[in-house]
Amino acid sequence: MSARYDRGLARQAELGGPGQTRRGVYDTVAEVAPDLPRLAIEFAYGDIHARPGLDAARRELVILGVLIALGGVDPQIEAHLESALTAGLRPGELVEAIMQALPYAGFPRVFAAMTIACRVFQSRDLLPIN
């Protein structure tokens, strides 16, 4: 592949966490659109996520805010919650970040994101949150 691809894979491995949800999404579409996972790895992770200037935890907070506002992207929210935890964010910080989206994204999207967060926290045995 390319240096961008290798850099993107390394960044994903660094942020992957135990669930590797992202890989499952990529595998699902690879049969019909094999370039799509490669482009996501090269561009989103190799070019953008690997840039200097923000640490991985802050990047994940930004990404989660955007995904919550978009709505309808549950697999991506789950993957980035996993990455945020792996990057060192605590469950309570993620709950507050999701709550911060409430006046901008609305109750349905925040409830959806919080439900996903509960699932991710439970899968990592992080409940109850103190």
Structural notes for this entry:
There is one protein chain. With 130 residues, this protein is mostly helical. It has a single domain, classed as AhpD-like. Helix content is 75%, strand content 0%. Helix 5 packs across helix 8. The N and C termini lie far apart (44 Å).
Give the CATH topology: AhpD-like
Instruction: Specify the CATH class.
Output: Mainly Alpha
Number of E strands? 0
- Radius of gyration over C-alpha positions, nearest whole angstrom: 15 Å
- Would you list the SSEs in sequence order as H and E? HHHHHHHH
β content, as a range?
Answer: under 5%
Compute the separation of the termini in Å.
44 Å
CATH architecture: Up-down Bundle
What attributes characterize this protein structure?
75% helix, 130 residues, globular, mainly alpha, AhpD-like
